[in-house]
Design goal:
This protein has 330 residues and is mainly α. It is built from 13 helices and no strands. The protein has one domain. The N terminus is likely disordered.
């Protein structure tokens, strides 16, 4: 269909140079309509620009916290629902593994800069902080991370002796004795993988990135630790304020791994493996650690071992970090 042009109002084939008054009025009205439509700015880009300006005016700490909480909230819902429904409806067939794996792959694909909207793709890829690492960097990242996480877990076991918490604070949310062993293992694997990928993407990726650019690594890691603690404080009975030093320490370990390696990938793997090991211990699925208060038992051999492991691992963590930094630079 041919578009309307003001020239259509002019004379044709040598006809009269002055069209009738009604036709002149119609042409002028059409020109005004066309001009107003062309001149009017589109609504969506203007709204998007306004929202972008408002977002950028927020302090970096607020922006980091909001995005991190959004990532963690969205990322954990589908696997959690899959685990609950699987254990209630068909516990003998662990289809939760397929659902969790598919969701985490799709979620990672989106966070790493793919999908809509393309205008945020580069920001997502940058703030996720997930570039690939060389083999040497991977080796030193795993060594340093294993030392740091072992030290912080020993610190947590020692803290449990000081926190004066009842054994019920470490009770499992469900009675695992009712389910097949394979189903329990698969459920723990889904929970651990989700925590490793989603929490590291949120707290060590999207939370740390904007804060680190504005305030530096120290403030970024500190805020990350506080938010990491608050999330667990609201959802886990054992995560009282007595465990705040533990959550700050584990966040320092993961934050320094990201700083020296340049990627959250090692932290994701180590976080998932650590949860897969610790969850059965925490919920008394295997031989549990002692939580009886030192005020009752006094300082015993187990408590001394936890303190010694904490000190030794933290002391070895520092040179391992330096080796990781050297491996990354090379």
């Amino acid at each position: 269909m041919r578009s309307f042009s003001p020239a259509d109002c002019g004379p044709k084939d040598g006809g009269s140079s002055r069209p009738p008054a009604r036709k002149r009025k119609s042409c002028k009205h059409s020109e005004r309509v066309i001009t107003s439509v062309v001149a009017q700015p589109p609504i969506c880009p203007t709204l998007a620009s306004m929202l972008s300006r408002l977002w950028n005016r927020l302090p970096a700490i607020i922006r980091g916290i909001l995005v991190a909480e959004l990532v963690v909230s969205i990322g954990t819902i589908p696997p959690s629902v899959a685990v609950i429904l699987n254990m209630r409806m068909s516990p003998s067939i662990p289809w939760m593994l397929v659902v969790t794996a598919g969701w985490l792959c799709s979620f990672w694909w989106y966070l790493s800069g793919h999908g809509w909207p393309r205008s945020t793709a580069e920001v997502r890829r940058r703030d996720l902080r997930a570039p690939s690492l060389s083999k040497r960097a991977w080796v030193w990242a795993l060594i340093a991370g294993a030392l740091g996480i072992t030290g912080t877990l020993a610190m947590a076991f020692a803290t449990a002796r000081l926190a004066q918490l009842p054994r019920e604070a470490f009770a499992a949310p469900v009675d695992f004795s009712k389910y097949p062993t394979l189903t329990i293992v698969c459920a723990i694997a889904c929970i651990s993988a989700t925590a490793g990928i989603v929490e590291e993407a949120g707290f060590r990726g999207f939370l740390i990135s904007p804060i680190q650019r504005r305030h530096g690594w120290t403030i970024a890691i500190l805020i990350s630790g506080i938010m990491f603690f608050l999330d667990h404080h609201l959802s886990h009975a054992y995560a009282t304020f007595a465990f705040l030093p533990f959550f700050l320490a584990i966040s320092v370990v993961h934050g320094l791994l990201v700083k020296y390696s340049g990627s959250i990938r090692p932290s994701m793997l180590l976080h998932a493996v650590a949860d897969f090991i610790v969850i059965p211990m925490t919920y008394v699925l295997v031989r549990s650690f002692l939580v009886e208060s030192l005020s009752i038992t006094g300082i015993d051999r187990q408590f001394i071992i936890w303190i010694a492991v904490t000190v030794i691992c933290f002391a070895a963590f520092v040179p391992a970090l330096r080796a990781l930094g050297a491996a990354k630079r090379s």
